[in-house]
Specification:
The complex is a heterodimer. Helices cover 69% and strands 3% of the residues of chain A. In chain A, a hairpin with a 2-residue loop joins strand 1 (95-99) and strand 2. Chain A has nine helices and two strands. Chain A has helices spanning 22-38, 42-59, 62-85, 106-132, 135-145, 149-177, 186-212, 232-254, 268-295, and strands spanning 95-99, 102-105. Chain A has two domains: 22-133 and 229-295, no CATH class; 148-212, no CATH class. By secondary structure, chain B is of the alpha/beta class. Chain B has a six-stranded mixed β-sheet. A four-stranded antiparallel β-sheet of chain B has the order 2-1-4-5, with no helix packed on it. In chain B, helix 3 (100-110) crosses helix 4 (115-129), helix 3 packs parallel to helix 5 (144-156) and helix 4 runs antiparallel to helix 5 (144-156). Chain B starts with a strand and ends with a helix. The chains are: A mainly alpha, B alpha/beta. The A-B interface holds A 171-172, 174-183, 191-192, 194-195, 198-199, 202 and B 55, 57, 76-78, 80-82, 86, 88, 92-98, 106-107, 110-111, 138, 140, 154-155, 158. The structure holds adenosine-5'-diphosphate (ADP) and magnesium ion. Adenosine-5'-diphosphate binds at residues 16, 18-19, 21, 23, 41, 43-49 of chain B.
Chain lengths: 296, 270
Amino acid sequence: MQGIAVPISVVPGNSPIHRINPIPKMVWVLGILVISFITRNPVILGGVFLLGLLFVTIAQIWPSYLRVVMVLFPISLTLILLQSIAPAFPQPWTPIVAVGPFTIWQEGIYSGLSLLLRIMCMTTFAMVMIMTSHPSDIFASMQKVGLPYTMNFILTMTLQLIPILQSEFNTVLKAQKSRGLKGTGFAAILPSMVPVFVGAIERVQQLSISLESRAFGSSGQKTSYRQVQFGFKDALVLAAGALFSGAMTYWLLVDKTLDWSRTLTFSPAFALILFFGAGIGFLLFIAFALRLVLTA
Amino acid sequence: MSAKPIVQVENVTHVYSRGNVTALDDVSVTINRGEIVGLIGQNGSGKTTLVKHLNSLLKPTKGRVLIDGEDTEKQSVQAMSAKVGYVYQNPNHQLFARTVQDELEFGPRNLKVDEAEIEARREEAIEFFGLEEMRDLHPYRIGFPLRKLVGMASIFTMRPDIFILDEPTTGQDNITTQRVYKLIHRLRENGHTVICVAHDMILLAEVVDRLLVMRDAHLIADDTPRKVFAMREVMESTHLAPPQITQLSLNLKKGKVVLSVDEMLKELKS
Ligand SMILES: Nc1ncnc2c1ncn2[C@@H]1O[C@H](COP(=O)(O)OP(=O)(O)O)[C@@H](O)[C@H]1O
Ligand SMILES: [Mg+2]
């Protein structure tokens, strides 16, 4: 059961990152988002990614983080595979080596690697933020910053809905198994999708009734049960985030030599290893996932 | 009724990894084929945890559980489902099909029962539980008591040897409670083994042969309802009260402990 569940929610802890106000953390996430989108330079993206892993270490959320990465793993591998033979990159492309009917392109490898790193950068920072901030704290801080109440509610509910859906999914799967459902691959998972979503909608309906009966959206000054502090340290982290992403953005926009798409060349051997490694990895993953589902 | 053990729980301890809760602490119990057993205890005493071990939904942290002589450790929930039917305490956790009718067919179809037989069982269950009017409705659209009956009916169509009812009468009205009585009597006639978790002492006094009492993850009593109800300390320490008529006979301190009004009348006349 734990094998399938991916808890994308707060991981209880008391690391320095847990203790920081959610707002500075969000500034970091936004900053990294911008940086990841304006550059394709693998070294810079790699550096940002390593910085993210450093934060993961400080926050002590490796196990939960790895579970999320596991889910991204097959997506990453297909990305490399498809990009190598059909780059999402302006023509002309430079061929490296031919594999049967396909050609592996220089730009394809570059684009695949940089897209992969982009995804990893963004997920890593987003996960550090989500896994170290209690949803109620996020809610309370957004409220302070002045986000409209309803908007804020939608945002935080979405974050909380993911773990709810996951537990709902496990519940239904167990119920079906206790009535003899034989699991064979995805066929075992699919019938549970309908009840999970029906259950979720049912839950949302009940939620809206209980919200209204507790005066949701009433006007007037609101106070929050959870108090969030914004201290000197938080200001420092916020400033660091803004400065870092600001400076990086400026540098990346100005320095044209950072575009390595035509200068960084990959050897045929490297291209082949990457291509087949991703292919074999993908197949292994499918086999592994099927076994997991079959024995669950 | 042969005295062959169908359920053997041997020194089972269960620790929920979330919150590190010890919900069962070295519990052992043997249940014979055809026995109707009641399980009582306060909320949180571990009743649900114990019965979930019988169909392999939970595996023991320590100890072992044998069903019909087979260790559940190596058995999947799917394989167990033919033998052990578990009616969830919360029907919302059990029901998932789009209509009541589909819900009743789901189990037997997984057990590869042939279609004619599935239909026969379905119709019988609809008749038995009085579900005719809601057969095409979504289980979520019908009221809680009836939804719970649908949960029972969905296991009833599977005809398992062992029937586990987790608080079948909690939150039920009079009519649905009567159906639960009827169900247990019917199961007894057909020689099924029934384990019924309940807070409804009147139900238990009437239908069960044997009563297990749990407190704080331990099994603290195991005897006939008549004897268990007379164990004052056991009953008080679990904050459970025997049926009023039984309390009366206990307080009279003469004659035998009675379980029903009829018995009391007989006792008074003699
Ligand atoms: N899934 C779970 N995770 C963690 N703790 C649980 C879980 N289910 C039950 N518990 C705990 O185990 C204890 C026994 O629960 P349960 O078996 O449901 O009791 P009962 O059915 O007698 O009310 C309780 O303290 C409960 O909080
Ligand atoms: Mg219970």
